[in-house]
């Protein structure tokens, strides 16, 4: 069940779970994917501690790339590096099967590509992100600008309430619809169905390829939820 946390408590938990994720960068010459968001920002700030074990870093957003570069990392393109050993990223919601809603920060497409290209996907969240059923958090759908209204009508037909994310352009030059009120009882099917709509780049369900392990920060420590 989702528990609301004040910002200070939540930031302390985000830092704690980011620290726990460092233990997964535990072999020499690892190829590491880095996600996007405030939880991942804590991870990036701690990443120099394990820099000697990292052979290549790939980033899921321009924002994470800038932060990594500030810490002295050279960020590589996924196409240069090939598949990755590990991807570490946050989430907006996580269910008991490590299926996720992502894209609150708008980086969902690059995040999904890197998740699929990685041997292990470690999701890092604080306990407020845990839910029994996905869908309280509005589902982000990245669309080509010319398809926005068309996709929005399809989302209404599916029972959702799409809201155009105003004044926001993704790193891919596209737009986001945040779809409220979806009952996500079958996240695998819904992820596929939405991705079939022409003009959809991708949606923020990470169910076909969910996390392999989720690290959940609580005031009592970090809980590990394996798939
Ligand atoms: C960005 C994401 C983030 O992982 C998600 O929004 C969680 O962010 P935060 O750690 O700031 O709560 O999917 O597209």
The gist of it:
The protein has helices at residues 7-21, 38-46, 62-70, 78-81, 108-116, 148-157, 187-195; strands at 30-34, 54-59, 75-76, 84-89, 93-94, 100-101, 118-126, 139-143, 161-164, 175-180, 200-203, 205-206, 213-218, 221-226. It has 227 residues and is an alpha/beta fold.
3D structure, described in words:
The protein has helices spanning 7-21, 38-46, 62-70, 78-81, 108-116, 148-157, 187-195, and strands at residues 30-34, 54-59, 75-76, 84-89, 93-94, 100-101, 118-126, 139-143, 161-164, 175-180, 200-203, 205-206, 213-218, 221-226. α1 crosses α2. The chain is of the alpha/beta class and 227 residues long. It has a seven-stranded mixed beta sheet, with helices on both faces. Strands 9-10-8-11 form a four-stranded antiparallel beta sheet. Strands 5-6-12 form a three-stranded antiparallel beta sheet, with helices on one face.
| First and last CA, distance | 19 Å
If strands are numbered along the chain, what order do they take across the biggest sheet?
A: 3-2-1-4-7-13-14
Low-confidence stretches: none
Rg, rounded, reads: 17 Å
* Strands, total number: 14
Q: Roughly how much helix do the residues carry, as a percent range?
A: 25-40%
Distinct small molecules = ribulose-5-phosphate
Topology:
Elements: H1 7-21, E1 30-34, H2 38-46, E2 54-59, H3 62-70, E3 75-76, H4 78-81, E4 84-89, E5 93-94, E6 100-101, H5 108-116, E7 118-126, E8 139-143, H6 148-157, E9 161-164, E10 175-180, H7 187-195, E11 200-203, E12 205-206, E13 213-218, E14 221-226
Parallel strand pairs: 1-2, 1-4, 2-3, 4-7, 7-13
Antiparallel strand pairs: 5-6, 6-12, 8-10, 8-11, 9-10, 13-14
Helix pairs in contact: 1-2
């Amino acid at each position: 069940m989702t528990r609301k946390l004040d910002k200070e408590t939540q930031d302390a938990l985000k830092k704690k779970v980011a620290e726990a994720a460092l233990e997964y960068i535990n072999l020499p010459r690892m190829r590491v994917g880095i996600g996007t968001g405030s939880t991942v920002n804590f991870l990036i700030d701690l990443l120099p501690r394990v820099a000697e074990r990292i052979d290549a870093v790939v980033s899921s957003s321009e924002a994470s790339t800038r932060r990594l570069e500030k810490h002295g990392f050279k960020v590589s393109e996924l196409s240069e590096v090939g598949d990755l050993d590990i991807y570490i990223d946050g989430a907006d919601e996580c269910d008991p099967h490590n299926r996720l809603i992502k894209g609150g920060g708008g980086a969902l497409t690059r995040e999904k590509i890197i998740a699929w290209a990685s041997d292990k996907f470690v999701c890092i969240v604080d306990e407020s992100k845990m839910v029994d059923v996905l869908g309280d958090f509005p589902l982000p759908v990245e669309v080509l600008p010319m398809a926005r209204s068309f996709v929005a009508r399809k989302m209404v037909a599916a029972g959702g309430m799409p809201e155009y994310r105003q004044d926001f352009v993704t790193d891919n030059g596209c737009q986001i619809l945040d779809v409220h009120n979806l009952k996500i009882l079958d996240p695998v099917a819904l992820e596929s169905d939405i991705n079939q709509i022409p003009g959809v780049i991708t949606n923020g369900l990470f169910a076909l390829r969910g996390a392999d392990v989720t690290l959940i920060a609580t005031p009592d420590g970090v809980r590990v939820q394996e798939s």
